[in-house]
Amino acid sequence: MRKEKLDELHSYIEELKVKKMELIDAHSRFLTSERYSVELNNGHTMVREKMVKNGRDGSAAIILPVTVEGNTLLVVQPRVFSKQGIGVELPAGYLDEGETHAGAAYRELLEETGYVPENLRFLGAFYQDQGCSAAFNKAFLAEGCRRVSEQHLDGDEFIRYFECSVDEMLELVDMGYINDCQSQLAIERSRQYLKK
């Protein structure tokens, strides 16, 4: 990986690292759980809890953007409950009420980076954690991305986007910088299209 790109990434990581974290209260306004009694065809009953995110199932779109120049866009943002406290990952976001996965992909890419794609290619779908969640995620390759605006982040979002070559993105996976499963899955599923 080019030294100047690694230095740029490290500056974003340092800027967005957690300095201090303290528990405000133990009552969530975003995450809740529901408890169910489940009866199986075999006559057995079990109890399961389902995670609910903002009143919905938490389904999301994951986007691997490729610019018209052939580079990729990654996002760097606080991931305060991870060991590193920071995430280097693909742009992604939850679906709004009534929104399709493709619509969310387009919207989230624009909000997080200011880029829009010429084409969205579906890469695959997966459950995030089917043991306690109904979140069903879809990954897309966003081809021919062009910058059309500044980022449009929510008040409590702190995201830097990072442009690098496809090979550098793959190096970042191998180096352990990109370590979330949804980014890794989308990257793996896109390899056949990225090498053309």
Q: Major sheet: size, sense and barrel closure?
A: 5 strands, mixed
Number of strands: 10
Bulk shape: globular
CATH class: Alpha Beta
Strand content: 35-45%
Corresponding CATH architecture: Alpha-Beta Complex
Oligomer: single chain
Report Rg: 18 Å
- First-to-last CA distance: 21 Å
Indicate the mean pLDDT.
94
CATH topology: Nucleoside Triphosphate Pyrophosphohydrolase
User: By CATH's scheme, which homologous superfamily applies?
Assistant: Nucleoside Triphosphate Pyrophosphohydrolase
* Secondary-structure element order, N to C: HEEEEEEHEEEEHH
List the uncertain runs. Answer: none
Helix content: 25-40%
Number of helices: 4
Assign the structural class, choosing from mainly alpha, mainly beta, alpha/beta, alpha+beta, or little secondary structure. alpha+beta
What does this 3D model show about the protein?
By secondary structure, this protein is α+β, with helices and mostly antiparallel strands. It has a single domain (3-18, 55-194), classed as Nucleoside Triphosphate Pyrophosphohydrolase, CATH 3.90.79.10. It is built from 4 helices and 10 strands, in the order αββββββαββββαα. The protein has helices spanning 3-16, 101-113, 166-174, 181-194, and strands at residues 31-39, 45-53, 60-67, 71-78, 86-89, 92-94, 115-116, 119-127, 136-147, 160-165. Strands 3, 6, 7, 8 and 9 form a 5-stranded mixed beta sheet that branches. The chain has a 3-stranded antiparallel beta sheet with strand order 5-4-10. It has a two-stranded antiparallel ribbon with strand order 1-2. A hairpin with a 7-residue loop joins strand 4 and strand 5. The radius of gyration is 18 Å and the shape is globular. The mean pLDDT is 94.
